[in-house]
């Protein structure tokens, strides 16, 4: 048990990434349970808070946690109780989207804060990527409330998360597609974000590998 606690403390990004993966796999089993969805949403936000606090606790993060993280936790529960209530979905997205994007920014800053890539920083690249996908899923939920029919039939949140992951990874496997212009605009923004993220991370890792090779030759 002590070794597990030490590993969690030393690799908070790995814990966050694992939590994101578990949430993806667990959601279909909990789709019919209001309590299950609410608990999963709250647990995920707590993992986000704990991971970022461990790797980059700054005054800006403290403010973001208070202004967006706290209300997002409340609306994660509320949205589980009333998933089809338009104003609840919009308000939930209003708090979730900026909070998730701020968390992904904090994870990327953590990755870039020095010239050594640690094991936990490698986990942070995957964790930040999944957090961006969650942010766009909430944004899509808001889009289909504001512009009904944006994705054809009304889509449940997990369907929108699926769309977000397939868009962000640019694999194009989703059977859910944007129909209205505003939805297509948001999807294009996520496509650009996905390509830019991969290019940014790969360039960072290649640059560090080249710098390490130069230092070893000196």
Structure in words:
- The protein is built from 8 helices and no strands.
- The chain has 218 residues and is mostly helical.
- Helix 2 packs parallel to helix 6 (119-146), helix 6 packs across helix 7 (157-168) and helix 6 (119-146) runs antiparallel to helix 8 (181-217).
- It is globular and about 60 Å long.
Report a brief summary of the structure.
The chain is an all-alpha fold and 218 residues long. The protein contains eight helices and no strands.
Topology:
Elements: H1 2-10, H2 12-30, H3 34-55, H4 59-81, H5 86-111, H6 119-146, H7 157-168, H8 181-217
Helix pairs in contact: 2-3, 2-6, 3-4, 3-5, 4-5, 5-6, 6-7, 6-8
Q: Which features would summarize this protein structure in a list?
A:
single chain, 218 residues, mainly alpha, 8 helices, 0% strand, globular
What is the number of helical segments per DSSP (H or I, 4+ residues)?
A: 8
Structural class: mainly alpha
Instruction: Sketch the topology as an H/E string, one letter per element.
Output: HHHHHHHH
Helix fraction, binned, reads over 70%
Work out the number of β strands: 0
Main pleated-sheet profile: none
Strand content: under 5%
Shape: globular
The radius of gyration computed from the alpha-carbon positions, rounded to a whole number of angstroms, is 18 Å
Low-confidence stretches: none
Taking the alpha carbons of the first and last residues, their distance comes to 44 Å
Integer average pLDDT: 83
């Amino acid at each position: 048990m002590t070794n597990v606690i030490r590993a969690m403390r030393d690799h908070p990004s790995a814990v966050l990434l694992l939590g994101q993966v578990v949430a993806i796999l667990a959601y279909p089993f909990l789709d019919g349970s209001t309590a299950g969805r609410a608990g999963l949403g709250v647990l995920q936000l707590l993992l986000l808070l704990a991971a970022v606090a461990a790797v980059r606790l700054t005054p800006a993060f403290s403010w973001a946690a208070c202004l967006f993280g706290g209300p997002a936790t409340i609306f994660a529960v509320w949205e589980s109780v009333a998933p089809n209530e338009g104003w609840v979905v919009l308000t939930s997205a209003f708090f979730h989207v900026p909070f998730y994007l701020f968390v992904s920014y904090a994870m990327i800053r953590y990755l870039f804060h020095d010239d050594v890539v640690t094991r936990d920083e490698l986990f942070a690249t995957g964790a930040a990527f999944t957090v961006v996908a969650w942010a766009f899923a909430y944004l899509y939920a808001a889009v289909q409330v504001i512009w009904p029919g944006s994705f054809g039939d009304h889509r449940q949140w997990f369907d929108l998360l699926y769309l977000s992951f397939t868009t962000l990874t640019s694999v194009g496997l989703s059977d859910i597609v944007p129909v209205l212009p505003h939805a297509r605009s948001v999807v294009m923004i996520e496509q650009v974000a996905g390509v830019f993220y991969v290019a940014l991370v790969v360039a960072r890792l290649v640059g560090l590998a080249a710098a390490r090779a130069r230092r070893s030759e000196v």
